[in-house]
């Protein structure tokens, strides 16, 4: 086993060597899937709490969607002007970067700031892309999604949810929390995990951006 895999297995004791070997054998029978390194397999096992059947489904979804969902995964030049305006692409890139640099975690909390969003933006909503993205995150990414928070909620949030809820699993819908102010957000998310601008002490937007650009 490579050094990186050893580090992952030490960090996540529920990921056993036996699980890695079984999944390697399964992958050998799946010619449409790429070769996957052991430490990457460990990420998927951890994200699925050691359930090998669920891990196989997640891996299948992950690699299949990355092939078919080319508008989000092909030509990902972060300095491309069009790319910088595509929210779903930026989110998937950030999650990919997190997984490669940090490995997995016991849970992920997503925070969406709706400040500056207007009703006219709804006319530009690509429902096809939204549907794919809302399938990809809970069904394909090797993360443990725990909560989704929207802050600075806009008056037409109900219309947005009406359009997007049919694409979400029920358990994902139950993760969603709406906040019109930061007080309720602070009750749900640790202060140390929030940027200074959101009343936390995790660093300013500028500091966090500089840190991740350097990475």
UniProtKB/TrEMBL annotation:
One MF annotation (Gene Ontology) recorded for this entry: phosphatidylinositol bisphosphate binding
Record's protein name: AGAP004785-PA-like protein
Pfam families per record: CRAL_TRIO (PF00650)
SUPFAM superfamilies noted in UniProt: CRAL/TRIO domain, CRAL/TRIO N-terminal domain
InterPro entries associated with the record: CRAL-TRIO_dom, CRAL-TRIO_dom_sf, CRAL/TRIO_N_dom_sf
Taxonomic placement: Eukaryota, Metazoa, Ecdysozoa, Arthropoda, Hexapoda
GO terms for cellular component: membrane
Domain CRAL-TRIO: 111-206
